[in-house]
Design goal:
Elements: E1 18-23, H1 25-32, E2 38-41, E3 50-56, E4 62-69, E5 73-75, H2 77-87, H3 92-99, E6 105-120, H4 121-128, E7 137-139, H5 144-155, E8 160-163
Parallel strand pairs: 1-3
Antiparallel strand pairs: 1-7, 2-6, 3-4, 4-6, 5-6, 6-8
Helix pairs in contact: 2-3
């Protein structure tokens, strides 16, 4: 019988999945201000913690940050909207409206943001060739040239950093 406290086979240094997603600059500003502690999506490609590589949409058009996310919280539009309302009063109704067509939703708890000098859309196109900002989510490590570009992003000095500590929560 295995020892409950034997963690010698556990790889605590294992990398988390890296996901590229677009975000409007106004929401990024709310995250950096500490006012937005969850990102809401209709679906998300991983079940555990992940690293969200943020591409700010036009007119900014820049790959600029990495956000460490805790495991997604899934639920109905009403359940996720209730979480959104508790996290930021007045936000629940818009989250419910966004998620309602899908019939379910995901809340991604934001733990830490690291902002870098970043890459403009032109620089990304030069590195990758044909470039279209993500419309959904892209698993970065399935695309070697994109993975290399993201490695270059995080090799640069951090411009600013923000730690957020969302309340531990479970959807009721």
């Amino acid at each position: 019988m295995p020892d409950l406290f034997d963690d010698t086979a556990t790889d605590f240094g294992a990398p988390v999945p890296r996901v590229l997603m677009s975000l409007h600059a106004e929401y990024y500003d709310l995250i950096m201000a500490g006012d937005k502690i969850y990102e809401y999506r209709k679906r998300y490609p991983t079940t555990g913690a992940s690293a969200w590589y943020v591409y700010l949409t036009a007119p900014t058009s820049t790959l600029i940050a990495v956000i460490d996310l805790d495991a997604p919280i899934t639920g109905s539009p009403d359940e996720i909207a209730e979480l959104a309302e508790r996290a930021r009063p007045g936000n629940g109704a818009s989250v419910r409206d966004y998620l309602a067509p899908a019939g379910h939703g995901v809340a991604l708890p934001i733990r830490r943001v690291r902002e870098y000098p970043g890459f403009t859309a032109t620089e990304i196109s030069e590195a990758l060739g044909k470039w279209h900002p993500p419309q959904g989510q892209t698993l970065i490590d399935r695309h070697p040239r994109l993975a290399k570009l993201c490695d270059e992003l995080t090799a640069a000095p951090i411009v600013r950093e923000r730690h957020l500590q969302p309340e531990p929560s479970a959807v009721p």
